[in-house]
Amino acid sequence: MRAPSPKSFRFAAVLGLMFGALSLGQAKAANPLELNFWLSGPRYDGRVAECDKALPTISTQFWEKESSFWNSPLQITGFSNVHETAVRPWASDNIPRRYCTGEAMLTDGKMRRVHFSIIEDGGFAGYGQGVEWCVVGLDRNWAYNPSCRAAKP
């Protein structure tokens, strides 16, 4: 039988020390300085664009969704009767949103109701304003069902 080499003893000792250190190093709660350091939370201005500013975004995103996911030629050709339904309907410390509704004319000749919201800092990676929308009757993945009710305030 061969005797263990000094290298294997060193390796075993280092490995044992690492596991020992990990098992002894229990997580500690943050101290008061760590809790309050640069954690001031989001600062919203409450400036959300008017309803009309979101219409080009809705048209583009609707076309992309219909053509890419549903293999449909439908497009929005125009909007009418677009109006605001609510602004910041919940507590003032929530993310500011403007809720709107209107009618969209589609390439199939049908008018369909559209509910949408404009969200401060709701764009990609929190940059710019974001838009969430739903066309009644064309919520094919049921994200806002029934009848786009979840897209309203």
Would you write up a description of this structure?
Keywords: Signal. This protein is an alpha+beta fold. It has 2 domains: 6-36, no CATH class; 51-151, Nuclear Transport Factor 2, Chain: A (Roll). The chain has 3 helices and 4 strands, in the order αααββββ. The chain has helices spanning 6-24, 32-36, 55-69, and strands at residues 76-87, 97-106, 111-119, 130-135. The chain has a 4-stranded antiparallel beta sheet, with helices on one face. A hairpin with a 4-residue loop joins strand 2 (97-106) and strand 3 (111-119). The longest helix has 19 residues, at 6-24. The model has no long low-confidence stretch (mean pLDDT 84).
Largest sheet: 4 strands, antiparallel
What is the 3D form?
elongated
- What is the overall pLDDT average? 84
Q: What is the name of the CATH topology of the largest domain?
A: Nuclear Transport Factor 2, Chain: A
List the helices and strands and how they pair.
Blueprint: H1 6-24, H2 32-36, H3 55-69, E1 76-87, E2 97-106, E3 111-119, E4 130-135
Summarize the structure.
The protein has 153 residues and is of the alpha+beta class.
Features:
four-stranded antiparallel beta sheet; 2 domains; signal; alpha+beta; elongated; about 150 residues; Nuclear Transport Factor 2, Chain: A; single chain
